[in-house]
Amino acid sequence: MIAPVTTIADTKGLLGTLPSLRLDVPDYIYTATDNARCSKSEIFVKEGDHVYMGQLIGMRDGGFFKQPIHSSVSGIVDGFEEHYHRSGKKVKFVRVKNDHKDEWDPSLKPRSDEEIAKLSRADFSKILEDCAMVGLGGSSFPTYVKFNNDKKIEVILINAIECEPYITADVRLMEEELEKTIEGMKYLMIAFDCKKVLICVKKKHKSLIKMYQEFLRRDENKGISVCPVGNFYPQGWEIAMIKSALGIDIPSGHLPSEFGIANFNVSTVWGIYEAVKYNRPVVERFISVTGDGIRYPSNFRVRIGTPLKVLLDKCGGYADPEKDKVFILGGPMMGASLPSDDCIITKTVTSVLVFNHVAAEEGPCIRCGSCVYSCPTHLEPKQIMDAVKAFDKERIKALNPLRCIECGLCTYVCTSHIRVTDYIRRAKMFAKTK
């Protein structure tokens, strides 16, 4: 066992070196019927039905897209319960009693390399849509949508930056699933008829960079290379990544595809490999569980639908159990805060942070300008906040809060502990109304 760690630097540095623990799959697994992008769903199974791993058990409705729901284990549907979702909301979950056989849906057939080589971009899109592939870096944006255009893609960027503090899940994935991630990149090259892939990794990950460079040196495919980028936050934001890797500025309101660029998170690439090669949806993921509120920070390779409490127990339980805890799903800058540990691990949960609660009283704005200087999209957070407080809708729209990526830097640097990002979120809601 490692000693508890308490600082951002120690946590990320030490945790990133620890191998991922494989947990026994729990007796009960939970699958969300709704999520942050889909508020409606139709469930195709009922209590008492047998399901296979990877079986289609429902369909979510996201308005402009549909999203299949799959079981991550084989077993018997045992009922429905409400738990917290990574979005911070309570949603309904299908509860499946695990039979511990992990029997895949017999309709899911693997593809040969020859079959994959003949797939069109539209074929890839259909495969990923049927497998409910989404951005596994936390965005949950439907991956197949990125394939639904006819623009020529000159370069594919793989986002392996993982720029938020504490999170090390992508680093572990890259070290432990190197060959599958590279194969997934090759599939992207086939889909987009693209000859160049850049794996964007922070410069400080020297051993990881060397590992991939050595593997790629021996590999027959010459189109994939490592692209070291800056060690700053939010370097993982796609606009910052594209600027660092290619020197191209993507104007607000424009898509990378307009400039011949496609980008994918490295965990998503791993999921794409499983979908294309085996026709399988994502049923497990790499996840970091850390913070000063637990005894032993750990990396896990965990089945989707596992209750958070199972992971916390494997981390030795709470440190200082008498203190109130703060739970964050995702990074500390852009993650969602939950009121309790009654949460289920879904496919887009990159990390769980558990902190001892520290009260911080909000003070008056001292007009120091820190929020302005730190904003990566060059907004005026203080002015936006004042416009929200005054309910000045026209002023809010004029300040263009929709450019905000909700990186959280304005709140982080505020010397008065004002939750500036929350005001920006409210401003974005105002700006979207007529």
Q: What does it look like?
A:
With 434 residues, the protein is an alpha/beta fold. It has three domains: 8-106 and 282-356, no CATH class; 113-278, NADH-ubiquinone oxidoreductase 51kDa subunit (Rossmann fold, 3-Layer(aba) Sandwich), CATH 3.40.50; 370-432, no CATH class. Helix content is 29%, strand content 21%. It is built from 14 helices and 17 strands. It has helices at 8-15, 113-117, 121-130, 169-176, 178-192, 206-218, 238-246, 266-278, 308-314, 370-374, 381-389, 393-398, 409-413, 420-432; strands at residues 21-22, 28-32, 40-43, 50-51, 56-61, 66-70, 75-84, 90-98, 155-159, 197-202, 224-229, 261-265, 284-290, 298-303, 325-329, 336-338, 351-356. The strands form four sheets. Strands 1-14-13-17-15-16 form a six-stranded mixed β-sheet, sandwiched between helices. A four-stranded antiparallel β-sheet has the order 2-8-7-4, with no helix packed on it. The protein has a four-stranded parallel β-sheet with strand order 11-10-9-12, sandwiched between helices. Helix 5 packs across helix 8 (266-278) and helix 11 packs across helix 14 (420-432). The longest helix has 15 residues, at 178-192. It is globular, with a radius of gyration of 22 Å.
